[in-house]
Automatic annotation (TrEMBL):
Belongs to the TfdA dioxygenase family. GO terms for molecular function: 2-oxoglutarate-dependent dioxygenase activity; metal ion binding. This is TauD/TfdA-like domain-containing protein. Keywords: Dioxygenase, Iron, Metal-binding, Oxidoreductase. The keyword Oxidoreductase applies. Residues 29-256 form the TauD/TfdA-like domain. Signal peptide: none annotated. InterPro entries: TauD-like_sf, TauD/TfdA-like, TfdA_dioxygenase.
Length: 276
């Protein structure tokens, strides 16, 4: 994996598309409009501000102005729902831990409509705050790494996405009532290849992807699994180990993310934060 401290000119992790700033650049960042920020996210898929210690009110105003999805302790409090659940994350306790860490549990705010403005944000407050490491996978960099013939093949494909597919990675045999509740969430048939501003392309390949349209199921599973392996290989992934006060902004249209368990905590919570 890429180093936690990835500089502007680094060529590792996310195809090098990571910008790191110090706190002196925070004010300009927070007053920038949506077009200004999205233009920068076209080239730098993830912006990291170490020890930003961003005040809550300006941060929430910033997220609202950008129509962004705000994650983390500084996000508006969500009322717990029955859909929140705990996962055993210690391989010594459960074999499921290794499965999860090597599975396709990668989320995309873009696919589920949680970040209609194309921006996602996570911030950690000051001392005493703890967050699990977060990995970011850049589907645009992965697309750029494909051969032209492979790009042409993918460009013609569509994928059925559904909220309930994500849930089945964690609970293989849910109660019938729960499954019906999950499946009541909207499903969507979307192009596999997503045009991005600036002429780039991203891949809609997060963990809600169910099946390639008009492709036999087993063949589809093998194809999607192989493609996810390509997109989430170390060359296209940045792992961020959080420090107090950190602020991370990413392009939700081209970057998938997943939280990892802390080694010192055998259980961590997976809660779906969604816009009201």
């Amino acid at each position: 994996m890429a180093s936690d401290e990835v500089g502007l000119h680094s060529s590792t992790g996310l195809g090098g598309a990571i910008m790191t700033l110090d706190r002196s650049g925070l004010a300009d960042l927070l007053i920038g409009d949506q077009e200004w920020l999205l233009t920068r996210l076209e080239d730098m898929e993830v912006i990291v501000v170490r020890q930003a210690f961003c005040p809550v009110k300006p941060l929430r105003s910033f997220a609202e102005r950008l129509d962004a999805m705000l994650h983390g302790p500084l996000a508006p409090a969500c009322v717990p729902t029955p859909e929140d659940y705990l996962i055993v994350g210690d391989p010594k306790v459960s074999a499921l831990a290794e499965y999860l860490q090597n599975s396709r549990v990668w989320e995309s705010d873009h696919v589920m409509g949680r970040a209609p403005g194309g921006v996602s944000i996570m911030a950690i407050p000051g001392e005493g705050s703890i967050a699990t490491p977060t990995e970011f996978a850049c589907t645009a960099a992965a697309w750029d790494g494909l051969a032209p013939g492979e790009q042409r093949e993918l460009a013609s494909l569509s994928v059925l996405h559904g909220f309930w597919q994500d849930r089945l990675y964690h609970e293989r045999e849910p109660r019938h009532e729960a499954l019906m509740q999950w499946m009541a969430r909207q499903s969507a048939e979307l192009p596999l290849v997503q045009p991005l501003p600036g002429g780039r392309h991203g891949l809609l390949i997060d963990d809600t992807a169910i099946q390639l349209v008009d492709v036999e199921f087993s063949q589809s599973e093998a194809f999607l699994g192989d493609l996810r392996n390509w997109v989430t290989q170390p060359a296209y992934v940045y792992r961020h180990t959080w420090q107090p006060g950190d602020l991370v902004i990413w392009n939700s249209a081209s970057v998938m993310y997943r939280d990892l368990p802390r080694p010192d905590n055998p259980i961590w919570k997976m809660a779906q934060s969604r816009r009201g």
